[in-house]
Amino acid sequence: MYDLISLGEPLLRLAPARFGRLRRATSLDVRLAGAQLNVAANLAQLGKRTAFISQVPDNELGLLVRDSCLSYGVDVSHLRLVPGTRLGTVYVEFGTTPRVGVSVFDRQHSAASLIGPESFAWDEILKDARLAHTDGIFAGLSAQCYQATLEFLASAKRQGCTTTFDVNYREHLWTAEQARRALFAILPHVDILATNRTVSEQVLGLRGTDEEILAAYRGEFGCRVVCLTSREIPSVLHGAWCSMALSDAGVARGRRYEFDVVDRFGTGDAWFAGFLYGYLAQGIEFGLSFGNALCALAHTTEGDVIQNSVEDVMPLLDGDYDLRIRR
Question: I want to staple 116 with a disulfide (CB 3.0 to 4.6 A). Which of 144, 230, 244, 252 is the partner?
């Protein structure tokens, strides 16, 4: 029934007008965010069938999440509205060189942080899914979310799903040592892993070349596919993205893309969604390039969820895309 089912926390994203400071804000733009939701929503925008598992407050903000998910094409059959809870919030401001962007999170005791290992009938939900996705952000929300992550992934394996996981370490949620202990328990359940050099070195203590780091993940945890992404930030409003992966077939690399930055929030989630789309369609190498191209496009529009179709991405893969105005 589903190409992907994602478990996580939706966030209300509030931002002042472009390049305005939060400290002087008099109005805030409202958008929906959340890394795990972004992956499901992005894949739905690319034409895949996705669902999102979470808890939200039983009030107008919970309905905002539900209605937004529906507008993206994400199934909300497993989005539970819980009375007396709150919705996590992130306040963001956009920077420009030399002032960097800012994120301020207010998510403690959110409805999603109360999800535990017995909150959902995991086996029943996952029995018809191809991919089961979550990440280190959700696992770091609370002790019960960590246990729910383990149960979700274990259930997915029992049901024959391919499990996908983005390390997504966030310092405001837990220490590097706490995350390391949790990841050493989580990653043996993961088939397709996304990570980067910084978290590999600082949290998991892995060193060496990119290829050696990829091999270390495979050797330690047995992940079927390990992806290493790299973001270059020569200035706040310009960047580049590339990625590589190790599997039984060896090391594969995707095409590198440069881009101008309109909104960088959620762009790593766009990459993962694009990689998974390409992986399902034509395998790892195509997935890497498709993900890189989608990530580049995601930087050029506001909001955490992409505003692109497969047809928007394909010309970038061909390498001869036309930058003239379409008339």
Answer: 144
Residue with tokens 């960047």: 239
Whole-prediction pTM:
0.96
Distance CA 35, CA 256 (A): 23
For residues 141 and 153, give the distance between their C-alpha atoms in angstroms, rounded to a whole number. 17
Of 256, 267, 227, the residue nearest 244 (C-alpha): 227
Q: How far apart are CA 327 and CA 324, in angstroms?
A: 9
Please state the φ and ψ torsions of residue 288, each to the nearest 5 degrees.
-60, -50
Give the residue from 230, 231, 236 showing the smallest Cα distance to 102: 236
The gap between the terminal CA atoms of the chain, to the nearest Å, is 39
**Coil, helix or strand at residue 116:** coil
Cis check: omega of the bond before 188, within 30 degrees of 0: no
Q: Which helix (H) or strand (E) holds 215?
A: helix 210-221
The 8-class DSSP code of residue 170 comes to -
From the CB of residue 209, how many other CB atoms can be counted at a distance below 10 Å? 9
Q: Are 138 and 149 in contact (CB under 8 A)?
A: yes
Q: Are 133 and 36 in contact (CB under 8 A)?
A: yes
| CA atoms of 25 and 28, how far apart (whole Å) | 7
CA dist., res. 151 & res. 117, Å (int) = 6
Span 171-197, pLDDT tens digits: 999 999 999 999 999 999 999 999 999
* Residues near 112 by beta carbon (within 8 Å), at least 6 away in sequence: 8, 9, 10, 54, 55, 56, 88, 138, 141, 145
Note the pLDDT tens digit of each residue in 105-134.
Answer: 999 999 999 999 999 999 999 998 999 999
CA–CA separation, 35 vs 141, rounded Å? 13
Element (H, E) at 226: strand 225-235
DSSP 236-301: TTEEEEEEEEEETTEEEEPPPEEEE-S--TTHHHHHHHHHHHHHHHH-HHHHHHHHHHHHHHHTTS
